[in-house]
Amino acid sequence: LKRNDIAVLLDVVVNHKMRTRWYAARCAALAYRRAAEETEDETLAAVFRALADDETRRADRLLQLLEQSLA
Predict the structure, then answer these.
(1) What is the mean pLDDT of residues 48-61?
(2) Mind listing the pLDDT tens digit for each residue in 23-46?
(3) How far is Cα 50 from Cα 17, in angstroms, rounded to an integer?
(4) For residues 42 and 8, what is the distance between their CA atoms, to the nearest angstrom?
(5) CA angle (43 as vertex; 40, 29 as ends), nearest 5
(6) At what angle do helices 42-70 and 3-38 cross, to 10 degrees?
(7) How deeply is 10 buried, as exposed, middle or buried, from its count of CB atoms within 10 A (0-12, 13-18, 19+)?
(8) pTM metric for this prediction
(9) How far apart, in whole angstroms, are the C-alpha atoms of residue 63 and residue 42?
(10) Higher confidence at residue 54 or residue 15?
(11) Do residues 37 and 49 touch, judged by C-beta distance below 8 A?
């Protein structure tokens, strides 16, 4: 393999991992939001909403990084 081929392969692997982590963060945010809606405990609902917000920020940041890597 040439140096450029290795760089391309590395980009593919990194982009795949970022997409996988982005998807996981989006799924986690959705799960936390559903949990917040389903619980009757307002304190627990607030914790779930905060976790959902954290996961949404994480997913948004990963998407920004992925878009930058593809530009």
Answers:
(1) 98
(2) 999 999 999 999 999 999 999 999
(3) 25
(4) 49
(5) 85
(6) 160
(7) exposed
(8) 0.83
(9) 31
(10) 54
(11) no
